[in-house]
Structures are given as C-alpha cells and as structure tokens.
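TL;DR need structure tokens for one chain.
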Amino acid sequence: MDACFKAFDKDEDLSLNINEFTELLKSLFRNEKGKPYPIDAYMCNELFMIFNQSGDGSMSKAEFAYCWNNWVKKIVRPVSAFIVVDVQNDFISGSLSISKCSAGHNGEEVVPAINKLVETVPFNVYAYSLDWHPADHLSFVDNVHLRKFHASSKIQDPSRVKEMDTVVFEGPPMTEQRLWPRHCVQNSWGAEFHKDLKVPKETRVIHKGINSNIDSYSAFFDNKKLGFTEMESFLRSLDVTDCYVCGIAYDVCVASTAFHAQELGFRTILIDDCSRGIDMEAINEAKAQIIEDHGLVVNSSEVKALVQGRDRRLELGYAWAIQCRKNILYPPKNRNSRYNPVKDENETQGSDPASQSLTNSNTVVAANA
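>> reply
TL;DR here they are.
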C-alpha cells in the first residue's frame, strides 16, 4: 500500500489529487495484455469522491488506506464463485426440455462449456443449484386443482388451464404463478444433474423450490423473498467477491440468480455461452439488466483472465466501489452524503463521520436485498 501511494503521489504532498488518482485508475483497469480500458473524467471523479471521504478534493493517506484495503486489493485479487444453475435432466431432455420453447435452445450444449471452465479456470468456490420440488408443488400444471384461485386471477376454471398459463393463487401467500409441466421432483431422474456434468468434489449443492406453496427461480431466494437458501451465507463465509453465473434456463433461473447476486452486492458476471434459455427477447432483457446494474455478460473464453485478476474491468470496479460507498458516512460537503444511511435518533452526535468510517469500517458490507 505504501509503495503504491508513494508511486502515484507525484507532488509528494502526502495525498492524492484527482489527477494522481486518475493515473492510478489507468494503471488499475487494464486488460490481460496490459492495455488500459478507457475511463472518462466523469467516472474518475465519481470514484475519487467515493474514497475522498472528507470531500476536500485531496485523498489523504488514511483515506487511501481504506480504498486500498477495501477496493484495490479486491479488484486485483478477487475471490470468485462459479455458480451453475439447474443443469438438470428435465430441463435438457425431460419433461421441461427447453428445446421445446421458442428460443429453440439445446440445453445439453452448456455441459461441455461448463466442464471446460471447471477444468481450466481456478475458481475459489463452486456452488451448483438444483430445482428440487415436492410432488405437490404449486408450479405444476397438474396440481392446479389443489389450490384456490384468487379473485384477481384471469383464469378461474382449473379445467381450462394449460401449460405456460399464468394464474393467481389465493395463498397464503397470494401468488402469481406461471404453470409448468411437472419437473425436477425430488429424488427423480429429472432432478438429477446431467450425467456428463463435472461437479467438483468441493461443490456446495444448493436445493431450491422445496416449499410446496411458492416457487424459487433464484438460487438465493424464493420468488417472493419470504425464504432463502444457504447460498448467500455460504458465499459470505468464504469472502466471495465475484459470482460467475450460468446454466439453465438463461431467462428464468439463471437470470434471477444473477439479479439477486447483484442485489446482495456481489460483482456479477453472466457467462453467455454456458447458458441456454426459453425466449430470446427475455434473454436479451436479462443481459441488458445485468449490464445496467454494472455487471458483465461475457463468453467463457474471457473468464480465466477475469478470475485471475489479470483482466480488470471498470464496470466491476465501479460495482464494488458502490458497495464501499454503502459502508462510509460522508460529511455534507461530499455529494455522496446523500447515500448515508438514515441515522438512529439514539446515535451518538458530534463525531467526525469520515474518520469514524475509516476507524470502524474494515470490510465492505454488501447491501441486503
């Protein structure tokens, strides 16, 4: 840290101004061949003001220490999780094969692409999810008669319901539900991983959709966020920074998992050629949302350099800076003060928020969804 600070403190005034910090950014955000990614003045200033906590236009060594420990080090040495979503028989060749859907995708194509990543990329963590439904699950079209429709449901006659229709169940909880063919029933062949999928022995297998009365597309939460899997706690326990997400179906369970990873503050990378989906319009919408929320959509050939910290993308750097910002209290002269958490009325008054955050904030705390 000291050597880095000294190298960029060109005027030797024991602080970094915006120009010096800009040079640091140019050095930090480079591709695997060492070529800097373009970064405009607006973004340089945005990042500078996040870490110049006092807002005085001069980043002190103490402020830089926070920046170094909570931001720079994590960008250079990320902790990466490979999250493989629902590569199961029923979605590939079984009752809910995505090959029958409008995109016409062959789900089996993800298997060799995922296996190659397992063989060649040094991920720190592996987490594979399984749709794991009880036999009476509300998402199965043949179970529609087991639950009462809510008055708002456009379909009220169970005998008129067909696959892919959307109904509203009375609950509790009241639930809008798209109806699917029976799939991924617990302990069935359809719920098993594809036979050729490589599952490293250290993989944490996450079961989702186990509550009969609510569906769960995401590997983090059910569709109403009333319940959650062990995914988040598992990733937090290993200090994961980056989630690489892929699998089936791209625009449903893969997308939902990626969205929740972003909501929880993980830098999120969607692996395009390791995912297959249902509807092309929905797939493209999912990609756009990931990018809008400062994530990446990449091909598998790009993953190794990203995981190794040799390819450092500005989008992911900014995403992590936003998480740092959530853990800093700013004085009014820093425009980031508008992001300060609302203070409890019993909180001690009169302390210097900038110095307090430097003293107390040793780790980046991600926002809860």
